[in-house]
Amino acid sequence: MPLGTPLSKFIYDIGEGGTNGRDIKAVQTGGPSGGCIPAEMFDTPVDYETLAQLGSIMGSGGMVVMDEDNLHGGRRPLLHRVHPL
Asked: pTM of the prediction?
């Protein structure tokens, strides 16, 4: 995917969204050093500068997509690094 592609394209078009009808709540970009971006910001273009402005990073380009069943424990506090809940 080219730089500037919205997060939503990665999550819903390529990743096909949540499984079993679950709503996607956030995506973590950049691996463990990156940040979590909440669903309200999925129109964000994926590029180095924009992710950095949000407090996240591109890293190797990996993403962890979270729904209501796996947004708990150690990941939930990461959302505060980008967007207060």
From this structure: 0.77
